[in-house]
């Protein structure tokens, strides 16, 4: 009987381990992209270079801070896949999809941000693009430009 219990326990453990392993694999493939892009675009989103990005710096303080609804927009070919990436979402190129609600090629999205200085780019069909309508840009570690949005 001891053998049967061990077999049942082993089988139950193997079954329990098998299900999470599939989920972990799916999560790995999703998460694997974020560290690459986060490293590619190191953020300098504060006035003091020693501090981290305002979006990353204080998640506890975010709750107490008033947030402002900020609208981002970009023109792209109708039917394009357009995303917003920046220091506020760890430069994840698929975290915030933008929508072309009228089908005119004007892609928009809104996010709530506390006061601060934020660097961002658009990802249009997999290509990183700075905001041509934004007057404030800074050079990033990759030698290209990031657009800058200041939230007062």
Number of helices: 4
Instruction: Report the strand count.
Output: 8
What's the CATH first level? Mainly Beta
The helix/strand series, from N terminus to C terminus, equals HHHHEEEEEEEE
Strand content range? 25-35%
Low-confidence stretches: 1-42, 46-52
Question: Shape, please?
Answer: globular
Radius of gyration: 21 Å
Oligomeric state of the chains present here: single chain
Helix-strand category: alpha+beta
Question: Between the first and last Cα atoms, what is the distance in angstroms?
Answer: 71 Å
Main sheet overview: 6 strands, antiparallel
- Which range best describes the helical content: under 10%, 10-25%, 25-40%, 40-55%, 55-70% or over 70%? 25-40%
The number of distinct structural domains comes to: 1
Examine the coordinates and then state which fold CATH places here, giving the name of the CATH topology. Answer: Immunoglobulin-like
Question: What's the CATH superfamily, by name?
Answer: Immunoglobulins
